[in-house]
């Protein structure tokens, strides 16, 4: 039986889709059977981030409305046979699916996979509620910015109210240099503000842009610091203890850590 | 940890990250508890009033109220310095 994990955020554009694609790929690279579901109905994106946009025949709404069986709609990844995508509908709006239908769908996926990752739309409305209704666990992605953290705090409350437990946190797009200069909220600051468990820290990384351009996950890129961060998160999801980056607000610490793995960037 | 206190006591550095953090903490307290900075000031004045019935010279300006965030619960903590009334 799969673990169903929803990746959500509150504020848009903070990296939910990037996170879903990379964690899904990383988990499959490590041998798990993984389904990633795009629950952002009307704003389909996970397919292009994963480079699978040309293979779509049926989508999630087709399955829900009985035009296709789940198996027909699931798209196999190009490289990893154990990784599948269930695409969102592009031409429908987010009310096309009911919460009950989402639960039914996730339960169908549960039987066939080890992990089901759901890419949530931004916001706190129907689309978000649909995305978490079938979940066992919720991951909140935020960037270290005032508005993103504020919205994340709203989402923590809503996830708890929906009885999904306390969500865990991924802080994305950290810029160690800015943090060291005291010009960006540190991971420590964000954790203190939100008071939820940290699952991962992902640096801001140009490799995300290039890998997204190619439709290949950054976890394939040996030189990508963000890719390595996502691999670490996948290991943590598998129950491994992977040490965190040093969080104290000391000059150079985060930067030195990242410097171990990659070329330095200016 | 005493961020509300810091806010009223004046911050040490004013790098943009610490400004962001203090602003966020105020916003989150307001979002979660509907407690605005004005209301907090009023709360301190009223606390001083009540305490003055039992203790000499409690000054609302000296009261420091801080919010400590925890995983299960947040805590409101008040520090009330007492003047040595004997000397006055
Ligand atoms: N760690 C990172 N480093 C650099 N760029 C990043 C990083 N994470 C995300 N991005 C970029 O930020 C943009 C938004 O990312 P993404 O689409 O994953 O966000 P989202 O939360 O899914 O957005 P939406 O709310 O619109 O669904 C993309 O252009 C992506 O390439
Ligand atoms: Mg998205």
From TrEMBL, chain A:
UniProt GO molecular function: ATP binding; ATP hydrolysis activity
Biological processes annotated in GO: division septum assembly; negative regulation of cell division
CDD domains noted in UniProt: MinD
Keywords: ATP-binding, Cell cycle, Cell division, Nucleotide-binding, Septation
UniProt key word Nucleotide-binding: yes
One cellular component term from this protein's GO annotations in UniProt: cytoplasmic side of plasma membrane
InterPro entries from the UniProt entry: CobQ/CobB/MinD/ParA_Nub-bd_dom, MinD, MinD_FleN, P-loop_NTPase, ParA/MinD_ATPase
Domain CobQ/CobB/MinD/ParA nucleotide binding: 5-216
Binding annotation for ATP: 11-18
Functional note: ATPase required for the correct placement of the division site. Cell division inhibitors MinC and MinD act in concert to form an inhibitor capable of blocking formation of the polar Z ring septums. Rapidly oscillates between the poles of the cell to destabilize FtsZ filaments that have formed before they mature into polar Z rings.
Protein family according to the UniProt entry: Belongs to the ParA family. MinD subfamily.
The protein's name: Septum site-determining protein MinD
Source organism of the structure: Candidatus Chloroploca asiatica
TrEMBL record, chain B:
InterPro entries named among the record's database cross-references: MinE, MinE_sf
Pfam families (alphabetical): MinE
Record GO biological process: cell division; regulation of division septum assembly
Keyword annotations from UniProtKB, A to Z: Cell cycle, Cell division
Residues spanning the membrane: none
SUPFAM superfamilies noted in UniProt: Cell division protein MinE topological specificity domain (SSF55229)
Membership in a protein family: Belongs to the MinE family.
NCBIfam families: minE (TIGR01215)
Job of this protein: Prevents the cell division inhibition by proteins MinC and MinD at internal division sites while permitting inhibition at polar sites. This ensures cell division at the proper site by restricting the formation of a division septum at the midpoint of the long axis of the cell.
Protein name (Swiss-Prot/TrEMBL): Cell division topological specificity factor
């Amino acid at each position: 039986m799969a673990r169903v994990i929803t990746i959500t955020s509150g504020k848009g554009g903070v990296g939910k889709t990037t996170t879903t694609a990379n964690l899904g790929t990383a988990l499959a690279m490590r041998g798990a059977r993984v389904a990633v579901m795009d629950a952002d109905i009307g704003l389909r994106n996970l397919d292009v981030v994963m480079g699978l946009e040309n293979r779509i025949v049926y989508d999630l709404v087709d399955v829900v409305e009985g035009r296709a069986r789940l198996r027909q709609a699931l798209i196999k990844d190009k490289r990893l046979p154990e990784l599948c995508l269930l695409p969102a509908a592009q031409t429908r709006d987010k009310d096309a699916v009911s919460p009950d239908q989402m639960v039914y769908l996730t339960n169908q996926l549960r039987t066939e996979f080890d992990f089901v990752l759901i890419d949530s739309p931004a916001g706190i409305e129907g689309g978000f509620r649909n995305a978490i209704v079938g979940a066992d666990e919720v991951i909140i992605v935020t960037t270290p910015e005032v508005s993103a953290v504020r919205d994340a705090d709203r989402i923590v409350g809503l996830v708890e109210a929906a009885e999904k437990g306390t969500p865990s946190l991924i802080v994305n797009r950290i810029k160690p240099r800015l943090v060291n200069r005291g010009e960006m909220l540190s991971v420590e600051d964000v954790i203190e503000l939100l008071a939820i468990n940290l699952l991962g820290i992902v640096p801001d990384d140009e490799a995300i842009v290039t890998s997204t351009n190619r439709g290949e996950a950054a976890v394939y890129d040996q030189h990508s610091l963000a890719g390595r961060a996502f691999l670490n998160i996948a290991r943590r999801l598998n129950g491994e203890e992977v040490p965190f980056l040093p969080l104290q607000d000391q000059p150079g610490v985060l930067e030195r850590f990242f410097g171990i793995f990659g070329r330095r960037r200016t | 940890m005493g961020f509300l206190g810091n806010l009223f006591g004046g911050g040490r550095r004013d790098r943009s990250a610490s400004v962001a953090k203090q602003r966020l903490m105020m916003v989150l307290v307001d979002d979660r508890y509907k407690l605005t900075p004005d209301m907090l000031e009023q709360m301190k004045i009223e606390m001083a009033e009540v305490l003055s019935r039992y203790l000499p010279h409690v000054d609302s300006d000296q009261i420091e109220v801080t919010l400590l965030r925890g995983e299960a619960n947040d805590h409101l903590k008040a520090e009330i310095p007492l003047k040595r009334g004997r000397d006055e």
